[in-house]
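Title: Request for sanity check on serine-type D-Ala-D-Ala carboxypeptidase prediction

Description:
We are preparing a figure and want to confirm that the structure record we downloaded matches what your pipeline produces today. Could someone re-run it with the sequence below and paste the raw structure tokens into this thread? We only need the token string, no images.
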Amino acid sequence: MTEKPHRFILDIRNKLCAIPVGFKYPKHLSITQRSGTVKRKYALLIGVLQIFLMNTLLGFAQEEVSIQSRAAVLMEFDYGKILWSKNPHMKTPPASITKLMTYHLAMDAVEAGKIRLEDRVTISEKAAAERGTSYNLKAGDVVSLKNLMDAMMIVSGNDAAYAIAEYVGGSAESFVEQMNGEAKRLGMKDTTFVNPNGMPTEGTENITTAWDMAILSQYLIDRYGKDLIPITSSWSFIDPERNFIKDNTNMLLKELPKVDGLKTGFTNAAGYCLSSTMKVASQGEGTSDFRLIAVVLGAQNDRQRVADSKKLLEYGALNYSKQGIIKMGDIVETYHWWNMEPLEIGLTVKEDVLVFGPKEGAIKQQEVFMFPGARLPIEKGQQLGEMVLTLYDDSKMYVELVSDRDLKRIPIGLRVLKWWWDFSGFMVTLLEHFVG
């Protein structure tokens, strides 16, 4: 039988109030891709486990936001927490938000060295014939892949998206197969693509949900944010060689200046759609900036999709924050080897710990667990236990607790004292046995 660890239930109110949080945090998130899935390495958190619940929402959240779009999701970027939703799994056409997947597959091919952004792409008759918003491409035109990508993301060029699909996939049909395979890999369970740009195709359209589009948006910012955000935050696209200039289709950029992406969409069946994102600045000492993603599908007009997206993003910025709760080096708990005061070890964290949640009540409970069986020598930085935080939505955060000092040997005097205590205790027990 495995021995259970010693357990200390800490009073969260008393404990956290004693922790100094008057400090600035560095940017903490780095992204790696392993085994085909994106995993985050939180430099400030060790061993984070999230329990995702469908529509994880605060009771008051649904009451405070009223939107008209048919479906919507508000997601926090770093942790993927859903802060607000309306019909998140309702299947509906995404229109040109489809182009987020087209961008992803093209950039994936660039990163793999299969193609380059500087490549010159010859426009086919099929690409030039695409209807709707366009880059004014004509069959036989030769355009850089970079310009095609920018035109697709900024002015929503359907012809540009089709040309990209043909160049990356060999044919649009082959590219669509890749799109569906990637959607499945990313966990977009309710998404099916039939074309690379979102236009109706022979009476059918791409199908997705607000939930799936939030997943895709999060993935793209994770993996390509440094390349993508400068594009999607541009107010216009200018190509002097083609005498082309057109404004960004995302009017939310001007309505809410902190917004820096991502993609609009419209068809008669889809209605007006928008996947938007905004970085929320640090809200004072002890907090850090964070990013929000809002997806609205099926608005009645452009004004409504902008208004709904703005409401969601402002709601998230007003009610949530990323709070510093423990600074690197702060003592979370103390442990006395052999229960002796001189042999005190402080349990601390390797790096600053941040928690995302409501500005009030982000943490429900804090627990500290000591691992049993630790033996000398103890080295500074050695893990001796862990802290488990139960957050506002009942998800768990696990933080590694380490020794704040070395304890390599015990002075002979304390060893003698320990022996004497043990011997005295044994003798007392023995006497009690015989006397009893």
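Thanks, this matches our download. Residues 277 and 293 are 4 Å apart (CA to CA).
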